[in-house]
Amino acid sequence: MKLPSYLEQVIERLSRLPGIGPRSAERLAYYCIRMPKQDVLDLSSAIATLATKARLCEQCFNISEDERCSICEDSTRNPRYVMVVEDPLDVIALEKAGSFTGVYFVLGGVIDPIRGIHEEELHIADLMNRLNTLSRSDEPIEVILATNPSTEGETTALYVKQKITDHPGITNVKITRIARGLPTGADVEYADPLTLKRALEGRGVY
Ligand SMILES: [Zn+2]
């Protein structure tokens, strides 16, 4: 049976999204047909608004509504305490944890030569400019490297660290890396040796 073209179009568009295969796309499209018409119109208008309004913060490259995101604009946060993350979803996760009082800097990915992602594709030069500007004041800066503990995340963290260290205009900066270790609910007995090694290295006073 040939599907109506409007339905085929929705299925085709949905199946381009990450994590949605052709079967799920079909199911979602049929679900939309059964939904109240207004709900479907609201969904499509919300997506259209997102497409026209979504932008990146000019200072930290987090998702923003205005030129600067709400975190950069928040005067209660310490701008000299900069957490470097891979993407905006990391900011959301870290904000949910609720204990960080500094600001973020979103790199926009990690260095991954196999996938053709090199340092120029990331916001590393912008990070150097930002730290350079912060260095004009004598107060200390802390950069927390919070890229994922994957091979690419580690490579990127090392690269950023080296860039900061080599930059003549960036001074009085302490570079730290988020601790890696056992996730909540994990069993020491079943943890892999690398995780245990890192958990031990990242231990704190109790
Ligand atoms: Zn921002």
Question: Which key terms come to mind for this protein?
Answer:
206 residues, alpha/beta, Helicase, Ruva Protein, domain 3, Dna Topoisomerase Vi A Subunit, Chain: A, domain 2, 4-stranded parallel beta sheet, two-stranded antiparallel sheet, 8 helices, 6 strands, 44% helix, globular, binds zinc ion, zinc ion binding, TOPRIM_dom
Q: Please tally the helical runs, counting DSSP H or I stretches of 4 or more residues.
A: 8
Overall 3D shape: globular
Mean pLDDT: 92
Name the CATH architecture of the largest domain.
Answer: 3-Layer(aba) Sandwich
At the first level of CATH, the class of the largest domain is: Alpha Beta
Q: How many runs of DSSP E, i.e. beta strands?
A: 6
Q: What share of residues are in beta strands? A: 5-15%
Function: May play a role in DNA repair. It seems to be involved in an RecBC-independent recombinational process of DNA repair. It may act with RecF and RecO.
Protein name: Recombination protein RecR
Family: Belongs to the RecR family.
Domain Toprim: 80-183
